[in-house]
Amino acid sequence: MKGEVFTAVMIVKPPGKIRVEEAVLDSDLVSTLRKNLPHAKLEVADRISEAVEPDPDVVEVVHFKGRFLKSCPGTRHYFCCGYRILHFGVQCNLACSYCILQAYLNLPNLRLFGNTRELIAELESELDSHTERLHRIGTGEFTDSLLLDPWTEWTTRLVPLFAQRNNAVLELKTKTNFIENLRNLDHRGHTIAAWSLNAGLIAKREEPRAASLDERFHAAARCASWGYPLAFHFDPMIEHEGWRKGYGEILDRLFDAVDPSRVVWISLGAFRFMPDLEPLIRGKHPRSRYIHGEFIRGLDDKMRYFRDIRIELYSFMLERIRRVAPDLCVYLCMEGRDIWREVFGFSPEDRGGLPNMLDSAVKERMNTGNDFAA
Amino acid sequence: MNALFIPVRLENLDWQERSFEIRSCTPDSRLTESLDRFGILVPPWVLDNGAGEYIPVDGFKRLSHAREKGVASVECRVFDSTAARGDLLLTRIETKLFEGPLNSAEKARIVSLLWETVSFEHLCEKHLPVLQIPARREVVDRWLCLAARGDAFLEAAASGKICDRAALLLAEWEDATGEKGLGILKDLRCSASIQVEILEGIIQIALRDDASVGDVLGRRDFNAVLDDPHLNHRQKTQTLRSILTRLRFPRLRAREERFANEVRRVRLPGGVQIVPPPSFEGDHWQLNLHFCGIPELQSLLDETRRIAGSPAMAKLMSSTQRESMDETGTPVTFRK
Questions:
Q1: Which A residues 251-310 touch B at CB under 8 Å?
Q2: I need a surface site. Which of A26, A111, A166, B266 has the fewest CB within 10 A?
Q3: Chain A touched by B335 (CB under 8 Å)
């Protein structure tokens, strides 16, 4: 591979404690965790309080009473991908400095939802009741999709389920290389293995406990060899000294590692954050200077880079991607019409909307969802 | 705690012991006038130290005034030597909290005294809400910094020359830098919100550039403004804010200036104003028309329609000539 090789090793140790709510003690998830974590201490409680002390050694398993399928939290001001979230847990201990999850102060610990039968039932009901629609569903919004997979084996249930559906694809977004459970699954090309990527310097400084970029590329290449379609998300893109070189190198290394024809899409999203996150980042990560960049208040009240900076970041990436993969679906996460037009020369509305663009990518690159009209 | 109201000879006071003092750091003229006219109306508090001396607890100004006037003894509320100092301090603070609004210097001193006397949890639960201070460790730390600062800081904060937030921000700066920052704000005599805007701008620029606050304050353009004898304090404030904004948001500011230039070039008729989206975010632009009567409106509409179709208008709304930074962080302009 070209470019600088970062040798950081992913540091995630198995949880030492499983704290379980009584109502889900007999669940399949708890059984699997106990099988894979035989030395972990089991604690059972009627109810696990939300406002508990942070404990990086614990994984909590609770009975979740809300909806498991959620819409991507887009806003009306910016175009949303229309992806739906399968909400199976909250929190992450990869400790990325920019992560919104550190603002979830009332839920400091890794938390999984133990009532998985209800989750599966809700998912199947949704897929079966709207067979005319292509469902793009992912699990990486409130936690990392694969962070706990070595111990939950959650993918061994989800991937085969999606394999049986011609109207649905699953996207597993991760910064780990925990892919072993994917190896022998009958996925039928309906699961996208996706990685969040960043410039080398940012990955090294701001994602200290995630897999190194080399590990991510290696994992992606292995998944491709097992037949999985791939996706990559450059989000959050962070402007920093030498960013062109940094992001350019990562794109070079990405396309050295994987065949672009295996990639369903690449998303780009410049760093944005709720204003409340700024003091948290300043306090917890005082060396992270990117938080003092040229941010303005966006239409959704999040802080965003001034538009011209975003356009520069995106235009650079698009041009570099197009050199290698002119037909690859590239999209912007949560951007408006004016930014799209300046970067791409068109707006998603001109092509039936962003969800439609992504549906088309699924049909073309994954050969899924072609049985019905979108 | 046992206490008696008895006359205390001022020569028996331990004037050096000021650990109970909560200074207001404000002029004493009103109190002096009252003492001259009516004498001491409310007896000061003192603590018998068990060695024949008395430690002032409350009423430092009253006692000092009496001494200056040559008074030999003053009736005081005397706590006997068995009184626990911590309990006495809390009682003294409690009465202070009921006296009326406290200024920043008094609040800082009270936080500092409580910090040494009660637990952080107790401070958060019982006292900070009364002081209207957020119950967070980093906030308490700032008040402690302020309490530890010299008289110049406390007097500026107590008198309202600098606002609470500005005082708390400045208190965390190193000694010389803090003094310089304080001097600047006192010279500028700007509003509380502008004080905070200026200080936060300086801090953010320093953090972004991995420099010290002193480095930012030492900038030549900064000091040229501050030392300019031809500018009054309002002009200095405005110029300083402009420099800070340019430093903090160089590309946004460049875009604003380019927009202003393009507007001049378009030569909009009087009464017509084009307003870009705030920070140029989004595509919601505004056109404001100001007119008197239908003929003027029609004339403005005709002229505006002509301008709307012109290349100059497209250029005005375009960001294709973007302000960018090169790899060294220097703004450069390039054409797409």
A1: 282-283, 289, 292-294, 296-299, 304, 306-309
A2: A26
A3: no
- In the predicted model, is pLDDT for residue B142 greater than 60? yes
Is there a contact between A289 and B210 if contact means CB atoms under 8 Å apart? yes
**A311–B319 CB contact, under 8 Å:** yes
Of the residues A284, A308, A318, the best mutation for testing chain B's interface (the one with the most B CB atoms within 10 Å of its CB) is A308
DSSP strand pairing (A41-45 vs A17-21): parallel
Per-residue HEC secondary structure of chain B comes to CCEEEEEEEHHHECCCCCCCCCCCCCCCHHHHHHHHHHCCCCCCEEEECCCCCEEEEECHHHHHHHHHCCCCEEEEEEECCCCCHHHHHHHHHHHHHCCCCCCHHHHHHHHHHHHHHCCHHHHHHHHHHHHCCCCCHHHHHHHHHHHHCCHHHHHHHHCCCCCHHHHHHHHCCCHHHHHHHHHHHHHHCCCHHHHHHHHHHHHHHHHHCCCCHHHHHCCHHHHHHHCCCCCCHHHHHHHHHHHHHHHHCHHHHHHHHHHHHHHHHHCCCCCEEEECCHHHCCCCCEEEECCCCHHHHHHHHHHHHHHHCCHHHHHHHCCCEEEEECCCCCEEEEEC
Regarding pTM above 0.90, the answer is no
Of A282, A299, A315, the CB nearest to B282: A299
- Asked if the C-beta of B329 comes within 8 angstroms of chain A's C-beta atoms, the answer is yes
Cβ contact, residue pair A292, B210, below 8 Å: no
- Give per-residue pLDDT as tens, A249-258: 999 999 999 9
Nearest chain B residue (CA) to A283: B138
Q: CB B269: neighbour CB atoms within 10 A?
A: 15
What would the pLDDT profile of A47-72 be if each residue is shown by its tens digit? 998 767 788 899 999 999 999 999 88
